[in-house]
Amino acid sequence: MNQIRSEYQIRRGRRSIFRWVAQGARFCTVTDVSHQKSEASLAGTPKVAARSRRRGTSRVRRVSTWALMVLLLACAVKLVAEISLWRGQAAIDARDHKAAERWLAVAGVVVRVPLVGSDEGEFYFQSARLNRRLGRFDQVSADLRQALSNGWDKAAIEREQWIALAQTGRFDRMSTHLGDLLTDVGSDGPEICKAYVVWLMSRFDLAAAHRVVDVWQQDYPESAEPYFQRGRMFSVRNDWPAAVEQFSNAILRDPGRADARLMRANAQIQLVRYAEALSDLEVVLATTPDHVEAAVDFAECQSNLGKPEEACDRLRKLLKKHPDEVEALSLLGRIELKRGNYEEALKPLQRAVELRPIDSDARYSLGKVLRLLGRDKEAEEHFNFVAESTRALLKLGQVTEELLKEPNNVELRYQVGKLTWKWRSRDGGVRWLRSVLDYDPGHVETHKLLAQHYRESGDEERALHHEKAAESMGSN
Prior knowledge:
By secondary structure, this protein is mainly alpha-helical. It has 24 helices and no strands. Helix 1 packs antiparallel against helix 2 (about 45-95), helix 9 (about 190-200) packs parallel to helix 11 and helix 14 packs antiparallel against helix 15 (about 290-305). It is globular, with a radius of gyration of 33 Å. The two termini are about 50 Å apart.
């Protein structure tokens, strides 16, 4: 539909250009005829009157010449505007986003020329599409508002809004339109499929996510993204060999995918293949030297490959720039503990536990350091926590396996969220708890735990929202 509309508009623009040229030609013809008549009428007139008539005719000729030049210039600018908009849309549909940026940059200049009168609505609409494809969602809303105010098709604008909501994970606001998007994906198939898969994974409906990826791979066999997403699904299930295979397929199709290399490296570390992981991490750090996660993983591989001193040096350099990076602090402390440097291990481990009290690895290492330093009473507190944490994480694994079989079970989902929040990751737990509300917006215990989380993190507005929701649902 957009292509038909665009082709129609380019033809309409050309017709208007031809009409302007024709009008200009008629104007000049009329001027020339008038000039010839004026010359003929000058014969037999007094010289003074003739000179006056000639000056007037000369002025008319100059005015007509300038008018024709302005008209031709306007025609040229309008043609550039129409062509640049058309080529910009074609590039977006072909997923050539760099070319689309170039064409829309030209269109952004010429469509605003007042004399041209080109359709600014189309420019802002295509700009919104491109910004959405490139993940610039803040600009998308502004572009769509401008497109609507300039008379662009409302249904097309609403569809863009639905896709943008899907890409940003706001399925709660557009889930009723998902069927329409999936039956008419147009050139936005990869974005719609990715958003849908991510949403299904957030609901732990991995079977449905795999089915979507199957179709995605059939429609876009050369795309790296469906393989990357399937790799993430295998990672969730701790199926590391399968995850490595899928990330490798993604990298084969797009060697520049740093995220795929990072995920493959992480899977290789889980399989104790540190040399293979190091190769991927070297590529990531060569392009993005300040990548924190890659630097920490690199140090872990170095340590496990018998280079602990180099690993510690890398971590200390990282911590100078990012002093509160918990993973780096915890790893540095654990490496120094292995090296027998207990005093050097103490400070980073204490800081890691201070920043993330639920980090059982850091707390266990800190307990060992404190015991080795003769501070048994302090160490006991951390060992007790680790013992309780281990039992809770074992239960989390069992509940997660049950949830895989019953992804729509709200109580299982709540248990996963609660255990994750308390014993593994605050952010991860919140994501799980929010997914509970997708299934059951009135789940009282979820609202209570979210209220506690937001109050502890200083977000009083959200805390009050969930507190009121819990009270309201509890009274009902």
